[in-house]
Amino acid sequence: MKGYYFITDARLSRAGNVSDVQSALAAGVRVVQYRDKWADDAALIAEARLLRRLCQGAFFLINDRVEVALAVGADGVHLGQKDLSCREARRWLGAGKIIGITVNTMEQALEAARQGADYLGVAPIFATHTKPDAGAPAGLRLLREVRRRVNLPLIAIGGINQDNAPAVIAAGADGICAISAVVTRPDVQAAISGFQRLFG
């Protein structure tokens, strides 16, 4: 989970999900989360299958949709607070799949850990326009507290850019995601590589 964590965004992307994922993999990304809240089920599954084939050597996760993850043979899912619980998702997916949970509070982080989450997405760290329903920024203080109290990989998401990413990493993030700072750029691979270098 260390390094840049890639999430697709078809609405923000200049080149499309397939091209973006290819660029992310070329930049050395090890985790790709497929998120598309606008496509119908048939289109979603078709594109997910294509992306799954591309992600050899990288973990391929589906956002929210456990049934899609099962249908395409994904490595796991990433769930929000309004989705299935981690415990319920584990019953569907089995012990060998990855389950990540987005958390906005310390209580949510502790509960996700109790339920057996494999990693946490701490979000939003800063104000973000990518996900309007993300809620108030959690800030670096929450990230530091979760790092201190939970022994799981932490992915920081929300409002992250090249300027504030070093502080996010210093606060304890194992990985970072900066959707608009990457997929809106003309060279997605170069943008991701810039973040990857921050991890040494």
TrEMBL record:
Keywords: Magnesium, Metal-binding, Thiamine biosynthesis, Transferase. GO terms for cellular component: cytoplasm. Condenses 4-methyl-5-(beta-hydroxyethyl)thiazole monophosphate (THZ-P) and 2-methyl-4-amino-5-hydroxymethyl pyrimidine pyrophosphate (HMP-PP) to form thiamine monophosphate (TMP). GO terms for molecular function: magnesium ion binding; thiamine-phosphate diphosphorylase activity. GO terms for biological process: thiamine biosynthetic process; thiamine diphosphate biosynthetic process. Its cofactor is Mg(2+). 2-[(2R,5Z)-2-carboxy-4-methylthiazol-5(2H)-ylidene]ethyl phosphate binds at residues 128-130, 159, 179-180. The keyword Transferase applies. Mg(2+) binds at residues 64, 83. Residues 5-182 form the Thiamine phosphate synthase/TenI domain. It is an enzyme of class 2 (transferase). Belongs to the thiamine-phosphate synthase family. It catalyses: 4-methyl-5-(2-phosphooxyethyl)-thiazole + 4-amino-2-methyl-5-(diphosphooxymethyl)pyrimidine + H(+) = thiamine phosphate + diphosphate; 2-[(2R,5Z)-2-carboxy-4-methylthiazol-5(2H)-ylidene]ethyl phosphate + 4-amino-2-methyl-5-(diphosphooxymethyl)pyrimidine + 2 H(+) = thiamine phosphate + CO2 + diphosphate; 2-(2-carboxy-4-methylthiazol-5-yl)ethyl phosphate + 4-amino-2-methyl-5-(diphosphooxymethyl)pyrimidine + 2 H(+) = thiamine phosphate + CO2 + diphosphate. Binds 1 Mg(2+) ion per subunit. 4-amino-2-methyl-5-(diphosphooxymethyl)pyrimidine binds at residues 33-37, 63, 102, 131. This is Thiamine-phosphate synthase. Its EC number is 2.5.1.3. SUPFAM superfamilies: Thiamin phosphate synthase (SSF51391). InterPro entries: Aldolase_TIM (IPR013785), ThiamineP_synth_sf (IPR036206), ThiamineP_synth_TenI (IPR022998), TMP_synthase (IPR034291). Pathway: Cofactor biosynthesis; thiamine diphosphate biosynthesis; thiamine phosphate from 4-amino-2-methyl-5-diphosphomethylpyrimidine and 4-methyl-5-(2-phosphoethyl)-thiazole: step 1/1.
